Amino acid sequence: LHVYDGCQSWEIAFIVQAYCSTDLVNEFAPTLRKAHEFIKRSQILEDHPDSEAYYRHRSKGSWTLSTADNGWSVSDCTAEALKALLLLSTISPNLVGEPMKGERLYDAVDCVLSFMNKDGTFSTYECKRTTSMLEVLNPSESFLNIIVDYASVECTSSVLQALIMFREVYPGYREEEIRKCIKNASKFIENSQRKDGSWFGTWGICFTYGTFFAVKGLVASGRTYENSFSISKACEFLLSKQLSTGGWGETYLSSETEYALMMVFASSCIWYKYLSVQLM
């Protein structure tokens, strides 16, 4: 059974964000232009025609993990694509192409907000619809708790970041709903922190991955190392796990090192208590 044809939209959204965070936009303008066009083409423009019959969540305005042909909207994939588009809209069209029309950005925000659970959190493919009692029906031998779409720190953080960025560019659109969403999402992230300062990562990469997204969301909502106990605890946790090689994870080649460094930079704690950390 083939469910996905890749993870193109997810990966390209992060690649675009990475390029936009550097001073290399002019040098890599052709790459960004192509990526921009791909993201615009990959947005789902209409809901599935039989969505109600099949209990499908809204898909209009969303992005999938891979391509529009996949058809299954995902909250964090939509949020990260929206972030990439908003960043590209700040760059000259002569370099990266014309920005996406405002109406389609509104569709993306409408779709993102439709994913919001009653408590202001976000799951992946749909809102949380039932209780964990249904997990008894789980047919998988390798994945736990997959019948119910539970809220996750990662999805909630991605949406939080996207809405904050969107609000800066389009301050009047669904302003009150976005304000409440940001407030509730931030609280959820803070309340989900473990005693050791970490956050659990839903997608199996676990604590470094979960902590990376959590801190990014908190920083976007105005928390800093200086004013947030959650962020300072996260830095304590992460830097206490650094290996003798300088990296994180199983080896210094692990992708965990990338997430760890991005989190440290995001929280700015590197400039405070941990100036002795060597960044290789």
From TrEMBL:
Record's keyword terms, sorted: Repeat
Positions of the Squalene cyclase C-terminal domain: 10-261
Gene Ontology MF terms in the entry: intramolecular transferase activity
Pfam families: SQHop_cyclase_C
Database matches in InterPro entries: SQ_cyclase_C, Squalene_cyclase, Terpene_synthase_CS, Terpenoid_cyclase/PrenylTrfase
Keyword RNA-binding: no
Keyword flag Repeat: yes
Superkingdom in the source lineage: Eukaryota
Gene Ontology biological process terms, A to Z: triterpenoid biosynthetic process
CC annotations in GO: lipid droplet
Family: Belongs to the terpene cyclase/mutase family.
Protein name per the record: Squalene cyclase C-terminal domain-containing protein
